[in-house]
Amino acid sequence: MMEVFPFKPGDWVAEPGTERVAKVKSVYEGAPGEVLLDLVIFSDKGDKLGRTSPICGGPRTFEPACSAQWWERIEEPRFPIQMKWVPNGKGGSTLQRWAGKRLPPANWRKPARRAGIILIPPDDEFRKALETIAAGHNDARALAAEVLARRASRR
């Protein structure tokens, strides 16, 4: 099970090459070692696009289960996305859409889940009723009326 993720919810990400921009809605593990992202996709102008793949009964406001290998963390983009000369790694530059400066991995850990313990305050009325039933009381209506009357008088 993966403990440290390269993205965190709220991160801005860009798809290299196309510079498609999205905001990370949630991060989770898919197949062992694979990081999946739920992404809210944005247009070049900064408008939310919603889901761009076929919906097939799934969510409409975000793109679910996108592989993280195709996305890079970026600074919050300034819309509209502009064209910029970007070094191509071969000694030259290429004119392309540039969403923003790349950031290192977030090394984010999911917060620990809170324990689901519900504390119920002790209630002697119900305990006494159960003891009465165990002692052989068999008139359920009378017992319920008696317990509820005592509870109502306490309020």
What this model shows, in words?
With 155 residues, the protein is α+β, with helices and mostly antiparallel strands. The chain folds into two domains: 4-109, Roll (SH3 type barrels), CATH 2.30.30; 124-154. 17% of the residues lie in helices and 30% in strands. It has helices at residues 124-134, 140-154, and strands at residues 4-5, 12-15, 20-29, 35-42, 63-67, 72-74, 82-87, 93-98, 108-109. The two termini are 51 Å apart. The mean pLDDT is 86.
Shape-level CATH architecture of the largest domain:
Roll
- Structural class based on helices, strands and sheet pairing: alpha+beta
Q: How many β-strand stretches? A: 9
The level of helicity is: 10-25%
- SSE series: EEEEEEEEEHH
Fill in the CATH topology of the largest domain. Answer: SH3 type barrels
The coarse silhouette is elongated
Please describe the biggest sheet, giving its number of strands, its sense, and whether it closes into a barrel: 5 strands, antiparallel
- Count the helices. How many? 2
Number of domains: 2
CATH class of the largest domain: Mainly Beta
Distance between the termini: 51 Å
What's the arrangement of strands in the largest beta sheet?
Answer: 5-4-3-2-6
Please state the average pLDDT score.
86
Estimated radius of gyration: 29 Å
Quote the beta fraction: 25-35%
- The unreliable regions are none
